[in-house]
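Sequence, please.
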């Protein structure tokens, strides 16, 4: 047991301020050190956010000459300009917002639906090559997403609908025009559908592994009791397993939504029509070769607009997300 010092300064710094009767004491000097550390981390995290917010309220589009963390003016000119004409391309802000939401929610919902059924099969059913398939599902996580873009590009680019003339429609790769490609009406690669398929392929491995680990914590006795009461497999899945998995479903969807909403590589490589562009692509289009050519206040305003839906989704799913991150399948 540690002896008390006669020095009043040392005794003051070793006062237990944690208020805990049991466990390890937390002296005052450790409290102060931890608080200074957390304040430093908070300042480091908040610095770029405050700088971007301050820059977005500026009426000047020139490059900032000084570091300002608090706005000296509250001009909404940059936000108005972004909403009226986000880029020089003939596309409106609402179209960009629609494209981003379609990709984010569509990919998130479809990937979640496929992943939860696959994760349930891996968690509950015993079949041949189960472990091998789980490893194969995990392998794509070891590769960078951009590394899979080339085969996905070639695969999706092979699906086209073309007019060969004379009322003949060719759907590649099942059939092709006699001469050339014909007039291409639809290319799966150069469409939101194709980008969505590519993004689902990248989102599924993480979703399956994340949900599989959570479903393993749900007691099988609950399903066995439901079977005794006469419930079939579909009723067990939708009425027993799914309600218990809602917190982890929210976590998986939110983590996927962040990646889908901010996804840039796949849309940039696949899409060529301005009408299919997303908000992330538009934000990149605002950057130029030289820093002085960038409309900094509009760039900051667009960055705030792009980040806002993520915060809204988190607030809406906050209860489920926290529950999914901190609790298991059994509620006590």
């Amino acid at each position: 047991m540690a002896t008390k010092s006669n020095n009043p300064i040392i005794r003051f710094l070793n006062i237990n301020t944690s208020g805990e009767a049991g466990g390890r004491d937390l002296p005052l000097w450790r409290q102060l050190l931890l608080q200074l550390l957390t304040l430093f981390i908070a300042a480091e995290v908040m610095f770029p956010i405050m700088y971007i917010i301050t820059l977005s309220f500026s009426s000047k589009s020139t490059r900032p000459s000084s570091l300002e963390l608090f706005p000296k003016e509250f001009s909404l000119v940059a936000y108005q300009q972004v909403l009226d004409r986000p880029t020089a391309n003939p596309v409106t802000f609402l179209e960009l917002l629609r494209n981003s939401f379609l990709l984010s929610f569509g990919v998130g919902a479809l990937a979640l639906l496929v992943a939860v059924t696959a994760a349930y099969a891996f968690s509950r059913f015993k079949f041949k090559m189960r472990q091998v398939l789980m490893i194969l599902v995990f392998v794509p996580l070891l590769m960078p997403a951009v590394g899979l873009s080339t085969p996905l590009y070639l695969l999706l680019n092979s699906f086209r609908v073309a007019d060969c003339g004379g009322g003949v429609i060719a759907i590649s790769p099942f059939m092709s025009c006699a001469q050339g490609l014909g007039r291409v009406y639809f290319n799966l690669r150069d469409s939101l559908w194709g980008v969505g398929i590519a993004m689902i392929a990248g989102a599924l491995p993480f979703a399956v592994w994340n949900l599989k680990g959570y479903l393993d914590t749900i007691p099988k006795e609950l399903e066995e009791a439901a079977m005794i009461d006469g419930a079939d497999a579909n009723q067990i899945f939708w009425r027993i397993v799914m309600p218990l998995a809602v917190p982890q479903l929210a976590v998986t969807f939110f983590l996927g939504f962040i990646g889908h909403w901010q996804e840039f590589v796949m849309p940039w490589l696949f899409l060529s029509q301005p009408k299919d562009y997303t908000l992330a692509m538009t934000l990149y289009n605002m950057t130029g070769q030289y820093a002085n050519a960038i409309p900094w206040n509009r760039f900051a305003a667009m960055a705030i607009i792009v980040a806002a839906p993520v915060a809204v989704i988190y607030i809406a799913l906050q209860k489920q997300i926290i529950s999914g991150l901190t609790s298991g399948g059994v509620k006590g």
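The first strand starts at residue 160 and ends at 165.
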